[in-house]
Each structure stands twice: as structure tokens, then as C-alpha cells.
Amino acid sequence: MKKSIFIFLLFASMHLYAQQTVNIIPQPVSLQLNNGSFTLNDAAVIKYSLLNKDLKAAAELFAASVKALAGINLKHNAASSKTIELAIKKTEGVGDEGYLLNVSSSSVVLSANTKTGILYGIQTLLQAMQPKSASSMQIPAMTVKDFPRFQYRGMHLDVGRHFYPVSFVKKYIDFLATYKFNYFHWHLTEDQGWRIEIKKYPELTSVGGYRNGTIIGRYPGTANTNLHYGGFYTQEEVKEVVAYAAQRSITVIPEIELPGHSSAAIKAYPWLSCFPNKPTDMKKNPSAFSKLMQETNGEVKEVQETWGVFDDIFCAGKESTFEFLKNVFDEVLPLFPSKYIHVGGDEAPKEHWKVCPACQARIKAEGLKDEHELQNYFITRIEKYINSKGRTIIGWDEILEGGLAPNAIVMSWRGEKGGIEAAKQNHQVIMTPSNPVYFDHHQGDPSTEPIGIGGFNNLKKIYAYEPVPKELNAQEAKYVLGAQANMWTEYVPTTQHVEYMVLPRMLALSEVVWSPKEIRNWDSFNERLQPHFTNFEKKGWNYSRGNYKVDIKTNAQNGQLFATLATEIFKGQVVYTTDGSQPTTTSTKYNTPIPVSVGQTILASVIVEGKIESPLPTKFVVEEKK
Ligand code: ACM
Ligand code: ZN
User: Fold this and answer.
1) Which of 185, 255, 396 to mutate to test the pocket of ligand 1 (most atoms within 8 A of CB)?
2) Which of 26, 38, 395, 547 sits CB 3.0–4.6 Å from 514 for a disulfide?
3) 336 CA distance to ligand 2 centroid (A)?
């Protein structure tokens, strides 16, 4: 009897061991699962040198996360046989950001060369934790060696088109920390709103921080809300965000757009424009455009209520523009310790500069060829000032036109071309090609998705992205610092919607920029992804199920049409109907291609573990095969 219980227990524990998995995203460089697990309960103690402020801060962050996740109160530095030890010490083979982690049934030992490495190890531990009982969690025994592939792993957020409170910006930073991103690119100024307090120019925010309406629907809009809309971050709030990010080893890069995307600043201070008395949006007012040189009086500037690119940009001829920008950067730089400062440079139409006497005089005086060289003059002059403060500028790839400022880093967004060109000119580059890392593009079937800007960047496409263009040789490839996803927000009015757009796509990108290229594996990622959805739900993070659409294709065989229904969801089962009714868990399960006829409607959904997971069924009407 006793023997059979023993054998049963032995098998049960072997079964448990065989079941043991961890679902770390991004996938660590190497992870070896061992026998057993570490039990995390109120008896566990976190141990670290109290002399090290960074370790203390990291330990507190870990303890707070464990408390929030599992209600467990970890003791600090008490006597115990169950310890989680954090140590910053010489750790071979993991560089500045990596870590070594050893979990056994009696201890957890995490070591790194830096606080950053410790924080990443902590994220891995948090992801590996699994519920064991009502009052305990377990961490599978494992040995992990981990470090990032790229030094720049970024996420951007446009707070100009829509404004989000500090509490949300911090939540967004939590997303970055969880998935081991290290740069938060904060797009702070736009045509539709200036979002950072500048004390010398209070009207940048009191006037430029608000617009009188917003278009409804897709550009050009079906109507206007006519609602006063806006907001801005005080310098104290900016400091709070920067400090919050720094505690998580995330650097905040501010973007102050110049010379374009500057309608809000121009509304506040019209003398920044070549034509202070001209309407900001000439396209909205063609007669004003045709009479460009004819002065108008009155309130003609506006904070934009629609989207797009606007001709009214900072004047490159007047000294007052450069004085203004110098004063702005004198307040911005002390707020952001970042080595990198983004100055925009994209989408700056040259229409005004072509007809502005001051800009033309500047072209002549400086011996410039054209308005593109004038843009180079503008950016280079700003760069010189920012370099003089010990910082480096980043600009969108348009800064290549008319010549690149000497030390600038290029952010390649119009595909990879700008990045390739910059790397070949020995300039550092950050890859952010709109295809596939613009997260304002659709991620699922547009018919089931919220209104968006267009494009289609689904999870699989992002996962397949390779940041080093094949056109670069090994030497040139070294100039690729990494990659970033951009979260533009014209069509993203709420914080929940931002979450929906970046989750889970940023998880795919995290693996692209962190994990070794050779171990990237879509099926493995897809399998590891599912538990993260559960975690999102637990934490109240809104996420998209855009990839729960069903891919439906037809082909003809011997005169008969067959439909193939596919899902990329791990363990997803497609169910479908052909009579127009909504698929349910009891609908026909798809196994092999189904014979169909022209005109027939297929509605298909994905079920996972007995639950319909597709937000809406995918609808497909069979057409004649050509
Ligand atoms: C951009 O998307 N205009 C950088
Ligand atoms: Zn001008």
C-alpha cells in the first residue's frame, strides 16, 4: 500500500517536472530548466548589500511587484534558509545590461555588472513566477544567462495628437520595463498641441496646449467635435516621469519638433512663422494660399484640429527663431539627462521658405543651394548648440536631405532607405520603418478593428522584422543601434486604445531587439505569448486580439472550390458556419479544406481551451477563382 502511494507520488512529481515551463518574453539568450522549484512565500527573504542604493531600490521594486502579483510580503535581509540574493558584481559574459540567474529549490541568485542587469533579471523572475497555492508562488529551477542583442530598444508615444495623463505615461513605462526596452521616445510637440511647460514662454502651453476641436472620423473627417481639447505636462511632472523611468533603467528621450509640425508653437507665438499674419492651414483656405503675399489681419493662426502636414513652419531666416529654440532647449535639457535629444526634422514643407524674404536672404548670405540646404543649416545650427551641452541629436530621416548634420543619429521611418544611407555615411541609425513597426497601423482585419490610419502591421510581421538591413556590410551594420516602434495617436484618443495598439505587438518587437537572431522562433513566441495575455488581464492592461482573425483562402481542384481556414494562434481551433449564423463553440470545427461554392458566406472564429477568443468572426464571401 505504502509502496504504491510512493510510486504514485513519484510519478506525479515526475509529471509535474515534465510540465514545468517558463514563458519569458523576450526569450533569454540561454535558459536551462532544472529539477525542482523555488517556493516564494512569506518565509522567503530577499538579500542584498544595504550599502548599495541601486540594489536596495531594485529589491524594493521586486518586493512591490511580488506583493502586487501574489500578496506575498518578502522580508529584506533577515536570517532564512530561503533566499533571493541580488548582487552587483563582476559578472562575465553578460555586458552592461545582462544578468546571470540561478534558481534552485533552496535559493535564487541573481548577479549582474549593473543595476540595469539586476532589473532585467528581476523581470525574468517575475515572468517565471507561477501560482503554487493561495499564499505561495513557485519559480522553476533554472539557469539563465541573458543580455540584449541591440543597445537601443525603443518605444515612442505621441502625446501631441492626443494627450494622456502622467499616470498613464508611467503605466506605459511599466510596459517598457516588463519587456526590457530601454528608451522611451516622448513626442512632446506637435501641430495639434505643445505638451511641455516652458517657463520663459508660458503661452506655448496656455495657448499652444489646447485646440478648439478635433475632426471626427477618418481624415478629412465627417464633422468636428468643436470641443476645447488639450493639456500639458508641467516641468515637475516631467521630472516625475523621468525619475520613474530612470528607476527602471529607462531613458526618456524628449522630442521637440523643428522646423515642421510646429503649428501649436506658432499659434502661441506667431512671430516664429515666416508669415505671422497668414492662416496656419493654407490648404483649408485656398484663397488665402493663392494670395500668399497679401497680408491679413487678426487671429489667423490655429492649433490644428485635423491631421496631416502643414506648410506653416518655423522661419529659418529670422534670428528670433533660433533665440527661441535655444531658450526652449535651455529648459528642456536640464529636465532630461538623456544623451540623445530628438529634434524632429520630418515633414517640413518648403513652400513658405521659398517665398519668405528672410529665409531667402539667409540662403543667399550662407551660400546655400536651396531650401533643403536651408533645412540642413537649421538642423546643424541646432545640433551645434545641443552638442555644446554634451548631447547628441536624433532626427527623422528627412534630415538626410540637403546634407546630414555632422553628428546626428538618423531615425529611419520611411522604410529602411534612410537608415541604410546614414549607416553608409558612418552615422548611427535607429530603425523605425513604418512597415512594420508603426503601431498606429492595423493589427487585425480592418473590418473588425477600430478606425485607424491605414496600413497593416500584424504580430507575425513585426516578429519577422530584422533591424539590420541586408544592404549593409558587417562594418556598416555596427551603426544600427537598434529599433523602435512608433505609436502615433491621430486615431487613438484614449489610454485604453493606446494599450490596445501596443499590446501585444511590443512583445514581438521586444524579442526582435533583445533576443539573438538565431533563436527567434515564431511558434515558440506564440506559445509563450498566451500566458502574457492572462497577465495583462490580471493587471488590467488592455490588449488586442487582432491576430485572432482567421485567414481564409480558396483554391480550385478538379472544378471544385475549397476553402482553407488558418489561424496563427497557438492551440487555436477554427470553428465556422456557412449559413450566416455566428460561430459558437459548438459550430463545426475546421480540420481539412471545405468544399464551397461562389457566393457562399463563411463566418469563422478561433476557440482556445473551449472559449471563443476572436473579438468578431472573420467574414469571407467566396468569389469565382480567376
Ligand atoms: C513621421 O512619421 N512623420 C516621423
Ligand atoms: Zn522665413
Assistant:
1) 396
2) 26
3) 30
Separation in Å, CA 234 to CA 158, 174, 199, 239, 329: 17, 21, 9, 9, 15
Q: Between 3.30.300, 2.60.40, 3.40.390, 3.90.550, what CATH number should domain 551-621 receive?
A: 2.60.40
Burial of 243 (0-12, 13-18, 19+ CB in 10 A): exposed
Give the whole-angstrom CA distance, residue 263 versus residue 453: 21
> What is 2-146's CATH superfamily?
Chitobiase/beta-hexosaminidase domain 2-like (3.30.379.10)
> Does ligand 1 lie within 6 Å of residue 346's CB atom?
yes
Q: Whose CA is nearest to atom 2 of ligand 1?
A: 413
How far CA 441 is from CA of 153, 155, 459, in Å, comes to 20, 15, 11
Q: What is the pLDDT of residue 295?
A: 43
Q: Which three cell numbers stand for residue 457?
A: 502591421
Q: Is 413 in the pocket of ligand 1 (CB under 6 A)?
A: yes
As given in the structure block, the three cell numbers for residue 238 are 516631467
Q: Which ligand is nearest to the CA of 191?
A: 1
**191, 162 in Cβ contact below 8 A?**
no
Q: Which helix or strand (DSSP H or E) is residue 385 part of? A: helix 371-388
The pLDDT value recorded for residue 293 is 39
Q: At what angle do helices 235-247 and 319-335 cross, to 10 degrees?
A: 50
Q: How many angstroms is it from 272 CA to the middle of ligand 2?
A: 9
Instruction: From 413, 437, 438, give the residue whose CB has the most ligand 1 atoms within 8 Å, as the site to mutate.
Output: 413
Q: Is residue 10 scored above 50 in pLDDT?
A: no
Which phi and psi (to 5°) does residue 455 adopt?
Answer: 70, 170
Ligand 1 pocket test: pick from 161, 185, 346, 394 the residue with the most ligand atoms within 8 Å of its Cβ.
346
Residue 453 CB less than 6 A away from ligand 1: no
Strands of the 551-557 sheet, one edge to the other: 551-557, 560-566, 594-596
Note whether 39 and 152 are within 8 A (CB). no
The answer to whether 609 touches 573, Cβ cutoff 8 Å, is no
Phi, psi of 405 (to 5 degrees): -60, 145
Residue 97 above 50 pLDDT?
yes
Check pLDDT > 60 for residue 30: yes
CATH architecture of 152-539: Alpha-Beta Barrel (3.20)
| Minimum-distance ligand 1 atom for the alpha carbon of 411 | 4
Residue 82's pLDDT band, with cuts at 50, 70 and 90, is: very high
- Using DSSP's 3-state secondary structure scheme, residue 406 falls into coil
User: For the whole model, what pTM was predicted?
Assistant: 0.91
Our answer on whether the CB atom of 414 is closer than 6 Å to any ligand 1 atom is: no
Q: Are 218 and 451 in contact (CB under 8 A)?
A: yes
Q: Does the beta carbon of 347 sit less than 6 angstroms from any atom of ligand 1?
A: yes
| Domain assignments of the chain as residue spans, ordered by start | 2-146, 152-539, 551-621
State residue 609's pLDDT score. 85
